[in-house]
Design brief:
Jelly Rolls; elongated
């Protein structure tokens, strides 16, 4: 299950990123593939913060209930939109320019609640 890094002080996060970046890894997400099953009430946003390797392809996918509209948005550490997609199943693919945190937002655009599965790698 994915964990939020919002509560970790930036200096500590930098130490963790540096330590992890010096070890060999196969996943594009620093800690390997991540998954979450979540419930989003109508017209709400669920936020994640996750670390990704630089210069390696990264993919985040969200699959919600059929016929209910989700929007997936990914932002870099500077707040720039990296990519977005809308539908009951969404995918954002990109190649990070550096190792670091990325914000993932899953927005339920439907007027009814939605269960969804999120996968990041």
């Amino acid at each position: 299950m994915m964990k939020s890094l919002n509560r970790i002080p930036r200096f500590l996060l930098a130490v963790v990123v540096t330590a992890v970046a010096t070890t060999a890894a196969h996943a594009d997400r620093l800690t390997g593939p991540g998954e979450d099953r979540m419930f989003a009430p109508a017209h709400t946003t669920v936020r994640y913060t996750d670390l990704f390797w630089g210069f390696r392809p990264a993919v985040v996918t969200v699959a919600g209930e059929r016929g209910r509209v989700l929007e997936l948005q990914v932002y870099d550490a500077d707040g720039n939109l990296v990519g977005s997609d809308t539908g009951d199943s969404c995918t954002v693919s990109w190649t990070p320019r550096r190792v670091g945190p990325y914000t993932i937002k899953v927005i339920n655009r439907s007027a009814i609640p939605n269960f969804y599965d999120l996968h990041a790698d």
